[in-house]
Amino acid sequence: xxxxxxxxxxxxxxxxxxxxxxxxxxxxxxxxxxxxxxxxxxxxxxxxxxxxxxxxxxxxxxxxxxxxxxxxxxxxxxxxxxxxxxxxxxxxxxxxxxxxxxxxxxxxxxxxxxxxxxxxxxxxxxxxxxxxxxxxxxxxxxxxxxxxxxxxxxxxxxxxxxxxxxxxxxxxxxxxxxxxxxxxxxxxxxxxxxxxxxxxxxxxxxxxxxxxxxxxxxxxxxxxxxxxxxxxxxxxxxxxx
Length: 241
Fold this sequence. Notes:
- The protein has four helices and no strands.
- The chain is mainly alpha-helical.
- The chain has a domain at 138-240.
- The radius of gyration is 71 Å and the shape is rod-shaped.
């Protein structure tokens, strides 16, 4: 009996151990299943991520190819533009050389024209100086001629007055006088000198001249001389301008 009990106890102990071992194994299996599930999910996620990276890589590869094509096109366009720029620079240099040559030619021509203008101006100044001198001489001559003419006119008037008074005196004392023909000739000469008609001269001779009348004639003669000189000065200014 004692051995049976011992055997039963051993069996119970083993059963208990097996049960505990089974529970432990179940826990390990469940934990392993969880890990497998987690690893499976991670693998799935990594695969999805890898697929996404592959798609991105494919897109990036296409974009890179497009960028390379665009860069090649841009490079070719840039090369063409550089060639155009070089051609334009060559044209600009040629234009600058041509412009410099034209400027030199124009400068030489301007210098020649300036020299010719200087010579022409000097000749013109000499001619103007000569003309001015001649005008001054003409003005002096005209002034002298006007003064001399005025002096002769005044002398002629004075002589006519004296002759008239002398004739009147001779007529008054009955001593006879100038012949009519001589008087007409004298009046004609006097009218020619005074630049007036014989009728105006006769009226002037028939008028009794007092001292005031003589002064009035002198003032008119002086005004005439001043007017002549004024006209002469104006003519000189217009010729100089």
